[in-house]
Amino acid sequence: MKIVRQIHSHILTNPLYSPKHYALTKILAFCALSPFGDIDYARRVFSKISYPNVFSYNSMIRGSSLIENPSKEPITYYRKMLRKGYANPNSFTLAFALKACAVVSALGEGRQIHSHTFRYGFDSSPFVQTAVLNFYAKCEEISVAQQVFDEIPEKNLIAWSAMISGYARIGMVNEALSLFREMQKVDVRPDEVTMVSVISACAKAGALDLGRWVHAFIDKNGINLDVELSSALVDMYAKCGCIEKAKTLFDEMPERDTKAWSAMVVGYAVHGLAEDALELFSRMEKAKVRPNHVTFIGVLCACAHSGLVSEGQQFWSSMHTFGIEPSMEHYGCMVDLLCRAGLIEEAYSLVETMPFSPNSIIWRTLLVGCKNKGILDKGEFIAERLLKLEPLNAENYVLLSNLYASCSRWEKVSYVRKKMKESGVKAVPGCSSIEVDGFVHEFVMGDESHPEAKEIKEMLRDICEKVRHAGHEPWTSVVLHDLGEEEKENTLCEHSERLAIAFGLLKTKAPVVIRVVKNLRVCADCHEVTKIISELYNREIIVRDRVRFHRIVNGSCSCKDYW
Description:
Layout: H1 2-13, H2 20-33, H3 39-47, H4 54-63, H5 73-84, H6 91-103, H7 107-119, H8 126-138, H9 142-151, H10 157-169, H11 173-185, H12 192-205, H13 208-220, H14 227-239, H15 243-252, H16 258-270, H17 274-286, H18 293-306, H19 309-318, H20 328-340, H21 344-352, H22 360-373, H23 376-389, H24 394-406, H25 410-423, E1 431-436, E2 439-444, H26 453-469, H27 485-493, H28 496-507, E3 514-518, H29 524-536, E4 541-544, E5 549-553, E6 556-557
Helix pairs in contact: 1-2, 2-3, 2-4, 4-5, 4-6, 6-7, 6-8, 7-8, 8-9, 8-10, 9-10, 10-11, 10-12, 11-12, 12-13, 12-14, 14-15, 14-16, 15-16, 16-17, 16-18, 17-18, 18-19, 18-20, 19-20, 20-21, 20-22, 21-22, 22-23, 22-24, 23-24, 24-25, 26-28
């Protein structure tokens, strides 16, 4: 940049130098696009160009989308280009603008730019088509992305990567893997980027067998295990419940960047292995690897899951020494830590000192804390703030209803449910999945759509009978509905994780580990029953709920009942 500034100065002060416009566009491109450039300097240069050409606009659209904290700035440059009318967009302009929309999930603006690809005659450009596909995939408009993908006559590697990544992003692991197999049939050789997407799909679904197969495919085909792909494998094994394998891979990595260390720290955290997470963070410091915001989310979560309040507060205080300003996620971790420890007032005080308005997740965490402690007045106030932010989110109504139910305020429970019905708000059903023979099977409460529903129900009845004979009395208090005891027991027996566990027992034999992924938190009764099942059937059961892992062996859970 020092040399570039000298050249820029020479151009401006030398009256014989011509044409200045061409030279300025080259300086602009270096400043905006080079890893050694300076985007602020590029902005100043751009502002001094009287009639920017398409090359200048492309440099600014692309460059402003590469910064660490991307915004809608690239879209602003695109709009300015159209408004000024000095230059029409070319295929690069449209592709860069679409990628910028994908980065910040600007769905409305991206759709408009998609329509411009037809207006300017670039709708059949493979470069632009791939950008359109990538945009819709990253914005989770998967049906539109699939339509765009199907219409591309000559699909290149980037198109296959993008589509697989789109499926992976929303957890459609079977579709992602099916597309990956189809890609192999047409002899398109995957690269490291493709494999990261496939591995991420396995991680999201908790599909360990598929993940192992993909790992073997990587080794067999000599695909380069770079730092990013190795980190993805570490993350996959951790999220699939194989924390020991994740650790082995991590230890074998010849080079580890911040992302790799953070993946392992977060892996330990979600498994409730707080001591391991904090010890690894200490090793990271000794290795002179600078932690980032994800690393601190990991250590704070580790403290939250193990009730390490003072340790969490120390890490919170140490963030500024690394130049990391606490984000909304970090505040969320601290509020969670305090609420889990029953320190609701301290958590609320922290929220009041936040430099930005709390989001719905933080208010929800506080509301859960109030429910667990039976703090009705503050809970109602928090619920009011939450419903102002998200009036159509069913989970908020359910939590408020649960708060009233936990205090036996059944008339208020009825009022909340009536309000939900009037607003057309429907609760998100609990959904659990289990991988068997390379296919992910999904279940919801009372589900009878599975081809083997009859056999699953029989297995479930056998489980319920054995659990009852073992002395377990159903914790009907967790069913926060004004129902009879028998109805409550039946409701508990048909929770989605129990259907998944029953299917696992039906289709696999010991010592195969039963691995279940649930979209919500596991209820207290299901947690207790799963511990009993593990002992009665001599099976290791690993349940990954929305917050953490529960590794249950011989009637004991890794969470030590602190969750």
